[in-house]
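We were asked to recover a plausible sequence for a given structure. The inputs and outputs are reproduced exactly as logged, with field labels preserved.

PROBLEM: sequence recovery
POSITIONS: 494
GIVEN STRUCTURE:
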């Protein structure tokens, strides 16, 4: 409605200015015409009396001529007549140029505003016995001023009435043609903004607003179709991502299985030996009880190892709980210790102490496991793989946004062959791998990146050929939900 009011006000002001201007010109024209009429009447009266005045002066003398003017004054209430010699002192009081014009035989007049409401003084030149004089005609401007006042008042009233009528009509038309359609369009925009893509508006008028309404209706239809397509694509991508993560988890479990066999071999040998001692009767009494206790202890140890492996491989929805990252790192390195031992690699952790954070422990362990396994596979010679935990200030990548802040940082540093510069930008792409056949599917880093993004963080990598690589996990100090877009679901690199 504000737009309609502004348009109406602008039109009313324009109409008022035009009408006022025209009326002002008309009033000024009327005033000029009235002044000319008065001057014409004075000139006509002056010349008429001038001839009679000269004849009376010449035939009967000065007194009779002045009596003629006095008699004329008695019959004129507004106009006053008098005689003036041009060589008298009174003539010198006239405005400059008046006396010279009269001596040249020209009629003159001027407005005298010394006494309100002002006087119109006209002079008609008359020559008597070679001596120059003039008949002065004086008329107050009372009637003229009254006429002007009445004209101005009438003009103002007429202008006000016309403006008021125009305002009422313009307001009604503005409300109908602009205000109401704009309100409908604004309501449609708000409903679309709130997610109601089925809303529509239909305007009967045939103008630009109706065109805009049709365009907004088409936009709403297009958004509804796009939303349905996006929902379907998002569901498909999330399903695919979950399958990829599960497949990567199972692949990692397969890698851990060989290490598990070695890890379970020792307690199984202990259990087998103690069981034989009991069955053969070699252990009796207190010794058999000790064997049973050792068997129970080793079985619990194996059960704990298997449960950790099953928890790691089980497919489930993300579940965030407070977790000590220091213990999670130690747990992960313990699971990977057999694989590291076969490669003659020492796993070392550098943690400052307990560091609690709300995370999905299984998903974070999966991401960390992928990075450690990736580092182990990159180390072709014996060495040390370090996992460092701490806090660091960092600037998030563009897709996360935000200022530089403090983040929880987990570094996985290997002493492998490093990554070539042309390969480095692609390490987080799905199915991209430079490993030997049978050592990787190309999903580990991609899935790990997606898991960390789900926690509101990211993974960065730095590497130089021949000097090893450092993969850094950045996690927010507090719980933060990640905005999932196409890049998140596909696990692309920042």
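RECOVERED SEQUENCE:
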């Amino acid at each position: 409605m504000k737009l309609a009011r502004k348009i109406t006000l602008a039109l009313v002001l324009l109409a008022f200015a035009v009408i006022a201007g025209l009326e002002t010109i008309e009033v000024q024209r009327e005033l000029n015409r009235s002044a000319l009429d008065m001057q014409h009447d004075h000139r006509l009266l002056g010349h008429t009396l001038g001839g009679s005045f000269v004849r009376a002066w010449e035939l009967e003398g000065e007194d009779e001529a002045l009596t003629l003017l006095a008699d004329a004054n008695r019959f004129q209430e507004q106009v006053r007549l008098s005689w003036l010699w041009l060589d008298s002192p009174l003539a010198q009081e006239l405005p400059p140029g008046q006396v010279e014009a009269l001596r040249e035989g020209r009629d003159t007049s001027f407005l005298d505003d010394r006494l309100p409401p002002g006087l119109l003084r006209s002079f008609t030149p008359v020559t008597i016995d070679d001596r120059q004089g003039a008949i002065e005609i004086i008329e107050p401007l009372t009637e003229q001023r009254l006429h002007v006042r009445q004209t101005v008042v009438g003009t103002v009233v007429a202008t006000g009435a016309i403006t008021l009528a125009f305002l009422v009509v313009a307001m009604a038309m503005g409300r109908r043609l602009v205000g109401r359609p704009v309100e409908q369009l604004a309501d449609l925009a708000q409903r679309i903004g709130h997610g109601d893509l089925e809303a529509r508006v239909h305007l009967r008028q045939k103008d630009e607003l109706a065109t805009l309404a049709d365009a907004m209706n088409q936009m709403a239809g297009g958004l509804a179709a796009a939303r349905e397509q996006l929902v379907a694509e998002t569901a498909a991508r999330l399903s695919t991502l979950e399958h990829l993560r599960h497949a990567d988890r199972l692949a990692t479990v397969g890698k851990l299985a060989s290490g598990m066999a070695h890890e379970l071999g020792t307690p199984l040998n202990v259990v087998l030996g103690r069981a034989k001692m009991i069955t053969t009767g070699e252990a009796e009494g207190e010794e058999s009880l000790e064997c049973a206790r050792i068997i129970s202890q080793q079985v619990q140890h194996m059960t704990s190892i298997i449960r950790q492996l099953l928890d790691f491989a089980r497919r489930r929805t993300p579940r965030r709980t407070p977790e000590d990252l220091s213990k999670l790192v130690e747990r992960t390195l313990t699971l990977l210790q057999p694989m590291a031992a076969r490669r003659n690699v020492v796993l070392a952790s550098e943690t400052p102490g307990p560091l609690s954070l709300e995370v999905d422990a299984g998903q974070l362990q999966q991401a960390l496991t992928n990075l450690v396994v990736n580092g182990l596979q990159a180390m072709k010679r014996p060495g040390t793989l370090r996992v460092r935990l701490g806090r660091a200030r960092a600037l998030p990548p563009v897709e996360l946004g935000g200022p530089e802040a403090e983040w929880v940082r987990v570094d996985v540093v290997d002493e492998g062959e490093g990554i070539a510069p042309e390969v480095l930008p692609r390490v987080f792409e799905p199915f991209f791998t430079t490993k030997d056949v049978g050592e990787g599917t190309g999903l580990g880093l991609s899935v790990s990146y997606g898991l960390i993004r789900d926690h509101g963080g990211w993974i960065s990598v730095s590497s130089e050929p021949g000097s090893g690589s450092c993969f850094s996990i950045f996690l927010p100090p507090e719980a933060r939900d990640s905005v999932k877009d196409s890049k998140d679901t596909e696990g692309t690199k920042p």
